[in-house]
Structure prediction request, 970 residues.
Amino acid sequence: MTLDDISITLVYSAMAVYAIAFVAYAIDLARRSAVATRAADEAKAAAAAGVATADSPVAVGASAGAGAPAGAVAAGGPGGSTPTSAKPASGTVRGAASVAYGKSPALRVGVAMTVIAWALHLAADVTRGLAAGRVPWANMYEFALTGTLVITSVYLLVLVVSKHDLRFLGTFVTGLVLVLLGVATVNFYVVVAPLPPALQSAWLVIHVFVATSATGFLALGFALSVVQLLQARRESLVASAKAVKQNFLATLPDSATLENLAYRVIIIGFILWTFTLMAGAIWAEAAWGRYWGWDTKEVWTFIIWVVYAGYIHARATRGWRGSRSAWLAIIGFSTVLFNFTVVNLFFKGLHAYSGL
Amino acid sequence: MSPRSDPDALSRPGDHIDSPEREPDASVTQPKLGFVGWLRFGWRQLTSMRTALLLLLLLAIAAVPGSLVPQRSSDPNGVTQYFADNPDLAPVLDGFQLFDVYTSAWFSAVYLLLFLSLIGCVIPRTKHHFEALRARPPRTPARLSRLAGYTERALPGAARSDAAQGERRQQEPSDASRRSAYPADLEPRVDAAIAKAAEQLKRAGYRVERYDVRGEASVSAERGYLRETGNLVFHTALVGVLVAVGIGGGFGFSGQRVVVEGQSFVNTLAAYDSFNPGRFFDDTTLDPYRLSLEELDAVYETRNQEAIGQPIDFTATVSVQAQGKESQPGVVKVNEPLRVHGTDVYLLGNGYAPTITVRDPDGEVVFTDAVPFLPQDANLTSIGVVKVPDGLEEQLGMVGFFYPTQTTLGSGAYTSSYPDLVFPVLTLNVYQGDLGIDGGEPTSVYTLDPSSMEQLTGGSTGVESIELMPGETVDLPNGLGSVTFEDVSAGAGADPAADEGDYSQSVSRFASFDIHDDPSQGWVLVFAVLIIAGLLVSLFVPRRRMWVKAVQRDGAVVLEYAGLARGEDPGLEDAVASFADRHAGTATDAAAATPAPEAAPPGESADDRPNPST
Ligand code: HEM
Prediction:
């Protein structure tokens, strides 16, 4: 078994564990919906009984354990039925604020599996690099392998650093990583090949790695922006007192918090992207004799940069903060994905390094 | 989060999130706007955040077509091909400058407007920022409790003095000249605490100002001016890049030249195969040095079964000779340009240049040269053209294919299966007639226009194409003479002992050099560094205000702490809390130096006492 074979085996193992993590996160989301719905029902019942006024807090966390539906118990495993800590509910059901959610075994399984998958993924990436005798990001397959590793790493890093509980993003992160890894191994895989002369440069290490890292942060920003939009929609429905079917969103941070979080990850991604663009220009100067030539890949790097500059401006423009800027973050990440897939595969240009 | 009355926001565009919300624009309700009014209105629109945003998005959209349609600047052959493939559509697209997107009128309009907006936005902000740098931090708000991170700490030692306080207060019921509303015995303590806060804040990089408003002592502090500085540096550096590229780039040039091994070229206008001067380029500034290609070394993968023939390395060994000087050795590689005499020399391509000799029927040489053949695929199947204008009865043209390692496909067609010289074969189709080069029209050396020529071999002529290996000679059809594919290794006599069948040195290679000078490059780099630095500073330096105020409440004095974020500042509340802890903690030490009132002998000022505990 060659190192590359070992790497591939590790990739498949990582994918299997990611899949388990994904399922666990999905179960957690389902459970969140159940908790939120029940909280709403209880609030209604309480209101009907005249016990509670409209804005009395409902300790959802406590009630969740008591009457956990069979589904949640089965999904969460034995731990699911233990009463969750009766944290004081942080909000009211009628208001836009979130429903307290408490502990979720499924979530913990999800995170644990993500960590294991990440370790396997890291090992796969390192062995690929060892097999090639160079950094493992010199063709599409390797970009995808390393890029997804960075996405997971950024996610885990943010979990550690952030004051907010962002584990709910796990569904998105593991889902995205799983899909990209799947496509990469099935469609992009190439055996280890030597570096073409144009890639033999220290800039390969820097430029491509920074670009990949930027993608990791922007991906997370995208996920947060999507949830922000959903949350904002829910909040406006709640505010206009229309009947809202409570779902998992009720257990998540409010849209303003999500927006701030998205902004913070995206500006890190943006700075990395700015650096990518400049490092690329310096490399292009050495390799092709001009630092900027509007090659297709350069064009799309520029477009991405400008879209995110627009996003940052939108955040500072009256009337554009909130949902509109979230849409820009979503468009921004779509251009990132477009750049990585369609531009790499179908557009003609100097950056013909997909290895396909 | 920002107060509406922030003077700082005045320099921002009116629709910046931190700017005070305007009344519905007065100019709109005015019955009539004068010319100046319109101008002012237009300028305000142009320099608004919304315009900047829309122009940015427009710029992103405007850049897209350039990636869908080949561009003359980066892919001229692609444009030619596009015209050939879409003869109806291409001229229409050309009318919209879609083959020159990045120099087109509409793309330029978008970015010039954007930069105009940028300049209009940055100048007043810069002016205002300079003023702000000299201004005092704003007055402490009346009520801190509404602000971010609001927290309180007891004035150290205050609780113990409650009784004494009441007493003293009564002793001095109305002292109108006093500013302070604090009990006299606490005053030194308050004063020490506020002074301490001011000092600590100053040390933490804040600009501080003491305010005593309505008898309440406070310190107002602000930090993070660097954030705005960074933002202004960032935006200004963007303009710098544009100017450097737009003006500086005009003084440069780029030229391409193909050089065969053993040959050289002199850096003069006439020597280039193609030359693109910048707008302000003066060709007398070209330094006429001589660049000779000694050897082009190509290394291909031979071991990895999956990647056989993949290029590993190209190295052009050259020598450079300035006028009247010794020649200097040099190396040009991909990714490693050679920087000589104010120019940068890049190795952009390489290929084979078979040496072909044509003799007339009497055996006299009428043509001999190393002819560069242009590579068509990764295994260097190459196409070249030989033109023999003189010496024969009629002009002769030959279109040739060169296969460094020839193999035959199932269809009988030839191809190359490896890029190095293992089994080199040259095939030639011969044309006779008018080469079309006498009319003075420039023609490419790489193409042959057979329209006024007669084909003698290959194709539908029924005569086999000429096929040669290095060192071989065959007769041309119709007794026109002969053609030889020279074996340069034999000819040079460099390696007479070479094995029969070793062709590795039999054909010369050529390098295609790109020679540039771009005086704007250094400037662009400087501005790029400023952009990154400005960006980091403006996005990560928190700009915040902090206040510490001593207020009297029910006879006791409480220290209040609060902050205000100017822009994104996730760490603000923590910063206020940790400052309060630190300050109250050290304030305790300071207070320890000031003994409790009970312990103080009457008449002795607390401040004069030495610190007993330290
Ligand atoms: C070439 C066009 C422009 C680009 C690429 C650009 C990019 C950026 C970026 C990346 C930021 C965030 C980093 C920082 O704060 O320094 C920013 C902030 C800002 N830009 Fe621009 N900008 C452009 C034009 C403009 C124009 C025309 C205006 C004025 C109308 C403007 C006003 C601002 C302001 C006020 C901020 C601060 C935002 C805040 O308070 O968070 N920019 N810009």
